[in-house]
Specification:
With 474 residues, the chain is an all-alpha fold. It is built from 21 helices and 2 strands. A two-stranded antiparallel ribbon has the order 1-2. Helix 4 packs antiparallel against helix 12.
């Protein structure tokens, strides 16, 4: 019994945050952004350490199971969350605004992420989805002026309710057919069933539709793009940077452990939506003058790039996709760190016209921005080159020429969008004065830039052990 409590320490540490944060918010008179960031930092660090320690142990293996795969993705997401929490505290301090609601809702979402990534039952998956959607809705409303975010919040709430219903319908159909909700039992049932009823394919489609929605793929990206141009930076960064790692992990876990019999059906369907999302996001990025919206589209592009790499959900596919998405998210984290330095007269700037000639007044920050964009487009010698190459070369090895060409076409379009930003900050006259930037932002930029440039030494060094673990998957 005591051992079970120890195994549950990652989840208990997330829950413990609420037990400390709520009384602190009620009883403490002087509350700064650092107050709740310190609590969030402490409990998240415990979660990371315990997740690594109990990477293959589970208390309820029939419903929720830790594996090396889920631990790798979750730990990467938690580390990025820890870094983003630190950067977010600088935003709240500069704005002199309370941060209790932001960190509390983020921990609710993290609990949902922890559950969905390690799900071993469709029941667990079906319960985790509404938790995440409810957390997203409350994150969108973390804004001093509710009227500015009411529209995307309402769109998201209605859409999330509909797709949760679709998910539950798909789960109900599979349960009615297999009389089980366990991933392993469902996989065994369909492995032994020679003829699959057509209704099951509809159920799989409904479940996949829920994933497509929650990953904000085209055409379900409207709420995300409309929100990130008006939402506060801490929330925008959290929604853009952390979820892709968790959703890709949950999707891999579902297909490999529950629906392996449907890989030949799921893979082309997923590739169609991912391909459309990749091309439309890349094209839309070229038409954007708002930096947040532009890099929101690039974030959708990066996620779609990774999903196209899941050609057959093999070990090599997963290794390549993990390497790519971790590097892409690191690069996007650097971009959002730069956004925290784009402050003029107390207001954070997001329009391209407001950052013309930025390199003249903030050369170091502009250089970091340049490195992160080079990494996103996979230009050597940045680490992004290794990430892009790992996915494309894996598709070439499996003779998936159409997907490889599609990725290269999308890469050219995103390169054009990034060159437009580079021209604005380097080759146009200065049009704005910027406030003094917190030294902590410079330190974070330097650390992130060093990681992105690790390819100068050994591109596989950062992900060496992770790729060995993932490559061992059959």
């Amino acid at each position: 019994m005591l051992q079970n409590w120890f195994i549950l320490l990652p989840e208990l540490s997330i829950l413990a945050f609420f037990l400390f944060a709520w009384p602190t918010n009620i009883l403490r008179r002087e509350k700064t952004a650092k107050t709740f960031f310190t609590l969030a930092q402490f409990f998240l660090l415990i979660t990371i350490c315990c997740s690594v320690l109990f990477y293959n142990k589970s208390v309820f293996p029939d419903h929720w199971q830790n594996t090396p795969l889920s631990t790798l993705f979750k730990t990467s997401a938690y580390l990025l969350t820890w870094a983003w929490f630190y950067l977010s505290s600088k935003w709240f301090l500069s704005k002199n605004r309370p941060s209790f609601r932001f960190y509390t809702v983020c921990f609710v979402v993290l609990l949902g992420f922890d559950t969905i990534a390690s799900a071993a039952s469709l029941l667990t998956l079906g319960l985790a989805f509404p938790i995440i959607c409810l957390g997203y809705y409350n994150l969108i409303l973390c804004h001093p002026d509710i009227d500015q975010v009411r529209y995307p919040a309402n769109i998201y709430a209605r859409s999330a309710s509909f797709f949760c219903l679709l998910l539950w319908c798909g789960i109900a159909v599979i349960y009615q057919t297999t009389n089980s909700l366990s991933y392993a039992a469902i996989a065994s049932f369909f492995a032994e069933t020679p003829m699959t009823p057509p209704l099951i394919f509809l159920a799989v489609t409904l479940i996949l539709a829920a994933f497509i929605f929650i990953m904000s793929m085209v055409p379900f990206h409207v709420w995300l793009i409309s929100f990130i141009s008006t939402g506060i930076l801490p929330v925008c960064g959290f929604i853009i940077l952390i979820p892709p790692l968790i959703y890709i992990c949950a999707l891999i876990n579902l297909i490999r452990n529950c629906l392996p019999a449907f890989i030949d059906f799921v893979s082309p369907l997923l590739a169609i939506f991912a391909g459309l999302s990749l091309l439309l996001a890349a094209l839309s990025a070229n038409r954007e003058n708002n930096l947040r919206r532009l890099f929101g589209f690039i974030a959708i592009y990066c996620q779609s790039f990774a999903l196209i790499g899941l050609n057959a959900f093999s070990g090599n596919d997963i290794s390549a996709v993990f390497a790519y998405i971790v590097i892409a998210v690191l690069s996007l984290t650097g971009v959002y760190t730069v956004f925290l330095g784009l402050k003029s007269r107390g207001e954070y700037q997001s329009e391209q016209c407001a950052v013309t000639g930025f390199a003249e007044v903030r050369p170091y920050m502009a250089a970091a921005f340049l490195v992160f964009m080079f990494s996103l487009i996979g230009l050597a010698p940045t680490l992004g080159f290794f990430g892009n190459l790992s996915v494309i070369s894996n598709l070439v090895e499996t003779a998936s020429w159409g997907k490889a060409i599609l990725l290269l076409a999308g890469l050219l379009l995103v390169t054009a969008a990034c060159l437009q930003v580079i021209r604005t900050i380097y080759f146009e006259p200065v049009s704005n004065k910027f406030d003094r930037t917190d030294k902590a932002i410079y330190i974070c930029l330097f650390i992130n830039m060093i990681i992105i440039l690790l390819a100068l030494i050994n591109p596989a060094w950062l992900l060496h052990d992770a790729l060995i673990i993932l490559g061992a998957l059959s």
